[in-house]
TrEMBL record:
One Pfam family in the UniProt entry: Epimerase
Similarity section: Belongs to the NAD(P)-dependent epimerase/dehydratase family.
Biological or metabolic pathway of the protein: Carbohydrate metabolism; galactose metabolism
Protein name listed in UniProt: UDP-glucose 4-epimerase
Source taxonomy: Bacteria, Fusobacteriati, Fusobacteriota, Fusobacteriia, Fusobacteriales
Reactions catalysed: UDP-alpha-D-glucose = UDP-alpha-D-galactose
The organism of origin for this protein: Propionigenium maris DSM 9537
GO MF entry, a single one: UDP-glucose 4-epimerase activity
Cofactor(s) required for function per UniProt: NAD(+)
Length: 324
């Protein structure tokens, strides 16, 4: 496991994976079409290729030029609303792109893949129990379904072609690296933490809180937040299990739920700024509470999140935002 190909390595999570891999002594090859990625986020120690998962020939050029031991796939569209408006775009990129990637991996004898999936594969979570990997998968939007289909493609390919895989289902990823100038950027960001911080910076007038009548302590939705560095560290730890031929599906979260209002108050404490907000109608299909059970990643991979408070997570994101 010496050389790792990171697809989508010019994006938010991918760029963090690149620097963490490099700092641990791996050789890193980055593949990105720069549609939603940024070349300035790619560490100069990595080798970069402009390529697209939907184009087998561009993939083939990378595998022909580089000896790849494992692939970490972060290349995907991730906006739920956009997936509803343009579902075929999501299936083509998120599912068909993975099929192409696996075909080229098999062609060049690459046996190991780490796949970036999502808690959206679980669909509409009911109740307030922690969500573990055995929770039923029933996506309610094309984004979640495109990722679940890709998961199943990977699992079937593993049986057919002898691949090893780690599939990670993310909950809410936030924060930024404290040692490198990388963070979350781009048009149309829908994640709560960067939106709150955009209001704090005056780039948005106010935070829209989607509903305040949920069955939660303060009436607003409760979610699980994980720092991006903790997230990618789990991916890197899984390379050792792949080397031993161990495949698996893992949830990644902190195991602690925080409401929208709690996140808002935490951001006010971190930024020391007023952050205007107003309640707007709840979105259809939004569950009241979604919190991860991540014991499998802890027990099998030896993973443990280092950023355990939302203030720490928000602080790193705020420091990044202020530099932009």
């Amino acid at each position: 496991m010496k050389r790792v190909l990171v697809t989508g390595g010019a994006g938010y999570i991918g760029s963090h994976a690149v620097v963490q891999l490099l700092d641990r002594g791996y050789e890193v090859v980055v593949l990105d079409n720069l549609e939603n990625g940024y070349s300035e986020l790619v560490d100069r120690r990595a080798k970069f290729y402009l390529a697209d998962l939907r184009d087998k020939n561009s993939l083939r050029r990378v595998f022909e030029a580089e000896k790849i031991d494992a692939v970490m796939n972060f290349a995907a569209y991730i906006k739920v609303g956009e997936s509803v408006e343009n579902p075929t775009m999501y299936y083509e990129n998120n599912t068909y792109g993975v099929m192409n990637l696996i075909d080229i991996m098999v062609e060049y004898g690459v046996k190991n893949i780490v796949f970036s999936s999502t808690a959206a594969v679980y669909g509409e979570v009911k109740g307030d129990k922690l969500v573990d990997e055995e929770f039923p998968t029933d996506p309610i939007n094309p984004y979640g379904m495109s990722k679940l289909m890709a998961e199943r493609v990977i699992a079937d390919a593993a049986k057919a072609y002898g691949l090893n895989y780690s599939i990670f289902r993310y909950f809410n990823v936030a924060g930024a690296h404290e040692d490198y100038e990388i963070g979350q950027k781009g048009e149309g960001i829908t994640a709560l933490v960067p939106i709150i911080l955009q209001v704090a910076k005056g780039e948005r007038a106010e935070l829209g809180i989607f509903g305040d009548n949920y069955d939660t302590p303060d009436g607003t939705g409760v979610r699980d937040y994980i720092h991006v560095v903790d997230l990618v560290d789990a991916h890197i730890l899984s390379l050792d299990t792949l080397k031993e031929g161990v495949s698996g599906i893992y949830n990644l979260g902190n195991g602690n739920g925080f409401s929208v209002l709690e996140m808002l108050e935490a951001a006010k404490r971190v930024t020391k700024r007023e952050i205007p907000s107003k309640v707007v109608p709840a979105r259809a299909g939004d569950p009241a509470c979604v919190v991860a059970a991540s014991e499998r990643a802890e027990s099998i991979l030896g993973w443990k999140p280092r950023y355990t408070s939302v203030e720490e997570i928000i602080r790193t994101a705020w420091e990044w935002e202020q530099k932009q």
